[in-house]
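NYN domain-containing protein: structure tokens wanted.
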Amino acid sequence: MDKIRTAILVDGGFYRKRAKSLWGEKSAKERADELESYCHKHVGNSYLYRVFYYDCPWLTDNIFNPITGKTVNFRKSDVFKWTEAFYDELKHRRKFALRMGRLSEAPQYVLKEDVLKKLFRGDKNFSELTEDDLRINAKQKGVDMRIGIDITSLALKKQVDQIILIAGDSDFVPAAKLARREGIDFVLDPLWHPVADDLFEHIDGLQSYNKPGRTNKEAKQDVSQGTVTA
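Answer:
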């Protein structure tokens, strides 16, 4: 019997954020090694068709910081250097393909949501604001579309038997439904993030690995609930 052909699709922005939360900060090479190793846990004895990684290049704009009153050149930032090194690492990995979107135009600094709530409640004054209270508001464009198109293409062309999607939202429900109608085994890996009900009913399985602090007892409970873990 031929091996099951598996394609792994990774929402890069989601992965980077969750990986940092779950397993801490790492160098670009260490994070790439981690992702490659993590994807191979999903493959097992099946045949890896390809890992598709979706993301956006980091900011290169000059953006005014309202707290410091200075303009920040993001091309010279540590985050820019890290992401460029990370993408370069992935480009040299066997079976990895990068699908790059773009960031929305006119990104700017905005207050973090928890800080904004504190201001409205009176728990914090404007005079107490620091750089740490700000975040960059820059939305990805073209990433979700590329994921949806690739899921559809893989399913309709019968290129794979199984699709593993590493993502955390329900934007991919239409594509997941199409893939399942075409006979594709569609598995979601939310990296231990809670899954919305409208996505649950349109997948064939839920599978995450390497949960920090997971005990053997918890592993058995996960399996009994239909979630395969390792």
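The helical segments are 12-23, 28-43, 78-91, 113-121, 143-156, 173-181, 197-200, 216-224. Confidence is low (pLDDT under 50) at residues 216-230.

Cheers.
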